[in-house]
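=== Per-residue structure ===
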Amino acid sequence: MNPMDLELSTRLERLERENRRMKRYGLAAVIGAGLLGMAGAAAPAVCDVLTGERLVLRDESGRSRVTLDAYRTENPAITLADKQGRARAKLALDGQGDLVVNLLDERGATRGTHRFGADAAPSTPSGNRELPPAKKTDTATMAED
């Protein structure tokens, strides 16, 4: 074999190897794109429901500011925190299903509580005389300084 035939033969073998490799990669890419396309078609375009047991909203500094919590509790709660990340207010249901709002100081101690019960008195319509007293379960307490 002359040197030119040897060179052409070597180049042809190298090109055929590269061609086989490109065909394998191309086939893998087509299959991968097809699988991704099917997965994308099966998923909803827009999420209309967010589910979970706890949701924590953080500020740009990474401090927890709002927490919605239903994890391992019968009484779900929403906790609001100040800019230092300390809990300052909590909205929750108690064991009887009443809504309880707790106001907290910077140490986390309860400074005030308001309870909204199921038997709350209706508000007085404006312009009418006062309604007769009803059984009222709303209570408010404030801690002394």
In short: The radius of gyration is 34 Å. Confidence is low (pLDDT under 50) at residues 120-138. Strands lie at 54-58, 64-69, 77-81, 87-93, 99-104, 110-116, 139-142.
